[in-house]
Amino acid sequence: MNTNELLDVIKTSADRHLFAIVGPNTVGKSHSLNFLHAQSNGESLLIDEEGGYKCNIARSKIKRVDNKYLYVDELSKGKEGIEGEYIEIEPSSRHIISVAEDCKRQLNIKFISSGSKKLNNILDIILSLNLNYIKIFYFDEPENFLDDQSIKVIQRLFDALVNNNKTVVFVTHSPRLLEVLRIDIDSVYLLPRMYEDFINLTFGQIKNIYQTTGDEINEIRVTERIGYGDALEFSKPEKIEHLFLNRLLSSQEFYRSLFYNEIFLLEGLTERCVLEESPKLIQYTQNVFYCNGKYQAPFLIKLFVTFKKHVVGVFDRDDGKAGKLPYEINSYLDSLVTLSNGLLTLKFIPFDLESFLEIDDTLYREILGGDYSVKKKEQLAKRYKAYIGLFKIRKQPALVSKLESLFNATSYIDWTI
């Protein structure tokens, strides 16, 4: 989808009034926002990342008197009429003004910071213009300089605009802002790289990816005669499936991945806790995403590759588990490499990290002390397996170097490119 097509969607959408433009730095998001504003036929306002604005209608010098706009001079109005003319403030505009005024009253301006100054500027702009004529509000990185509390003020302002039939389009680098706004994935437009088109996936399209992947995994189960229990991860009732996907797609972890070009996809929490101990294993350019088991990995790989992310997947090879679904999924994951157009790299660890870290009874006895028993050991292993691994690696920091050697040695890691 190019910028002109996005503008058509913004101007013609009857049921969506909030749009987010996201992506890594230097891909042209602000340029696209300025283009959208320039092509909006004098019906829009653009507030830039510093708190300044551009508006080619009802620009300035208005006062509000008894629910009416008073134009101080004709030039500020931009239309034919008499100097000092009063215009009724529409009910929707009055509600937006009321919310903006209330937000200003709650601002702590005793000490002006960059954040409070910017937020104050945004509210002043809303309060100083004739909102009757403005249909589309463009915001460039409204979260800049703002703390979490102030981001919620932006949320309140956006809610007021959208609930009063105004359209809001914003560029952001903030997963937190997206999370606070609870924006539908349908309204998120990803600009992956400079000079490329926007990527927009609807909830329905993502649900189809999820269901198709589930069907393919179930086919593996049937072909290999694997018990049904192993496939339950992709056999959720429809209503639960909807809630699962909605929760995933509105999480800060997922939103964060949209701002990276590379995703480091880890099978379990143990891998995440342990591998993050080494700054050499996970690059600053990679976002770590925990897929909560190998069952979810194929779906997440397909999802991120569709968003044109390069995925590095790290999984146990599960040797000795032939005939079990986790082992049989390996070949399915391998088949995805061919379909990924070079966007997928897989690393298969020939044994689980718990074995590599030599987690044994001696370690459990040290953690549990005099409270040790086989039953409590089993409970600890079940509930806190990942943190037991982390305890071991922090107790013996030399294991980090050993882990780095493991990942750099082709004799230990099967690479599929």
Walk me through the structure.
- This protein is an alpha/beta fold and 417 residues long.
- 47% of the residues lie in helices and 15% in strands.
- It is built from 17 helices and 14 strands.
- The strands form 3 sheets. It has a 6-stranded mixed β-sheet with strand order 3-2-7-8-1-9, sandwiched between helices. It has a 5-stranded mixed β-sheet with strand order 11-10-12-13-14.
- Helix 4 packs antiparallel against helix 6 and helix 6 crosses helix 7.
Shape: elongated
Number of helices: 17
Low-confidence blocks of residues: 74-82, 410-417
Q: How large is the share of residues in beta strands?
A: 5-15%
Structural class by secondary-structure content:
alpha/beta
Number of strand segments:
14
Radius of gyration: 27 Å
Q: What profile does the largest beta sheet have?
A: 6 strands, mixed
Distance between the termini: 29 Å
Helix content: 40-55%
Mean pLDDT: 83
Topology:
Blueprint: H1 3-12, E1 18-22, H2 29-38, E2 44-47, E3 53-55, E4 62-64, E5 68-71, H3 74-77, E6 86-88, H4 91-106, H5 114-128, E7 136-140, H6 148-163, E8 167-171, H7 175-181, E9 188-190, H8 203-223, H9 238-249, H10 252-257, E10 262-266, H11 269-275, E11 286-290, H12 297-306, E12 310-316, H13 325-339, E13 344-349, H14 353-356, H15 361-368, H16 374-395, H17 398-408, E14 414-416
Parallel strand pairs: 1-8, 1-9, 2-7, 7-8, 10-11, 10-12, 12-13
Antiparallel strand pairs: 2-3, 4-5, 5-6, 13-14
Keywords:
single chain; 417 residues; alpha/beta; 6-stranded mixed sheet; 5-stranded mixed sheet; 15% strand; elongated
